[in-house]
User: Fold this.
Amino acid sequence: MLTIQFKRPASTMSHRLALPRHSFHAIALDANVVPTSRDVQVLDLSPGGRVDAVVEMNAPGVSVLGELKDRQRNTGLGVVVEYADQHGPPRWLPPPLLPGITPRSEATKGRRNRTGGSRW
Assistant:
């Protein structure tokens, strides 16, 4: 098992992180213990937020832990996770989506924010 603490400095952007073929067991949000935790495929890291999560390392290979959005992940918001004695190029596989959920990158493509003005 691997315990990871994700911190998001204050900003206006949220990030959604995944590790292909693994799930996260969130144990604390913003330093508060999660009363009823469950396994999730994606962590949503809001501006100024912090998530403590445990990952059971049970899917050997070479994968990328990173942002769901290709552009964000390919420009640096991703890290290679390599098991011992595993070789090859890192693989990114998008997590399965829940019914009725649209990927954020597709849902907001070409749109301004809902108020029509700029964010501040």
User: Anything to note?
Assistant: The two ends are 40 Å apart (CA to CA). The longest strand covers residues 2-7. The mean pLDDT is 80. The chain has one domain: 2-89.
